[in-house]
Amino acid sequence: MAAAKWSWERNHIAGRGSDTLPGAKWLFQPLRTGRGCVGVVGIIRDEPGPLLTPDQQRLLDALADQAALAVERVNLARDLHHARLQAETDRLRSALLTSISHDLRTPLASILGSATSLRSQAAVLDAPTKESLLGTIIEEADRLNRFIGNLLDMTRLESGALKPNTSLAELSDVIGAALRRATRILADHRVVVDLPPGLPLVSLDMVLFEQVLFNVLDNAAKHAPAGSVIAVTVRRDADTVTLSISDQGEGIPQADAERVFEKFYRAGGPDRRRPGTGLGLAICRGFVEAMGGTIRAGNRPDGKGAMITISLPVPVQAEMPDEDTMPAGPA
Questions:
Q1: Largest distance between two CA atoms of the chain
Q2: What is the mean pLDDT of the chain?
Q3: Distance (Å, rounded) from C-alpha 298 to C-alpha 84?
Q4: Same domain, 173 and 313
Q5: Are 252 and 261 in contact (CB under 8 A)?
Q6: CA–CA separation, 87 and 180 (whole Å)
């Protein structure tokens, strides 16, 4: 192996029949590229005499060059992949730091300001003012709790620790739970639910799917003007149940329809961005896909507002029995 090591380190042919270590049994040919040696190929033959004819040597040189190019392409692809991963890591780190600095400091400042006022001016504040300050503390603390929950959910998704506990469930139950949970953030909007009767059961994790709906409702409430309608619509289409949540806000630019599901991405320019981490819809996609569904973003058919559409497959055993065809009980 001394000849192979010498060939690798010197980027020069070595071994049997060459100028270097000619007494070796093997002939080692370096695989050369513009960035140096990327490997060594060795050949051997039991018969005495010259190992290769001139034509065979030229063939070996050509094959070594082709092998070196192939290895170089693989190395370049790997380096490019690592560079992209590093760039994405740097981007996400920067986005996370920006998000944390803004989305932690803003509610904390409100909490501290309200708590300080209650403590220092309790004797002079009237009851409505005190109630307003307490409401601010609760609202901003809830916002902080959602922020930390989103970070934890994204950590679970990226670590592969998320395993949905799916079971057959009625969408009406999950929608009702999500709307009750979102009562405070939807207080300034009118919610319209269109849920036709006779929908089949769907296979989902009720806790995760409630979080999906809450995130989408929260997103709609942030971008829709006060007093506008947020609509929750469910439809059956063959073997799929589709749930859509639409608002009457500014809508989603076509170029951002897919990007809104990226971590820390928020559509629109800085002057149009609403408070938030940019994690809500990314978490929604991870949760929905883990349950075997799909989620997409777009705008309402009339173009006046955004619409998030979730599609879930209907399991074969999930058809809701019709009351007229249900088996009769014991007489």
A1: 108
A2: 82
A3: 28
A4: yes
A5: no
A6: 41
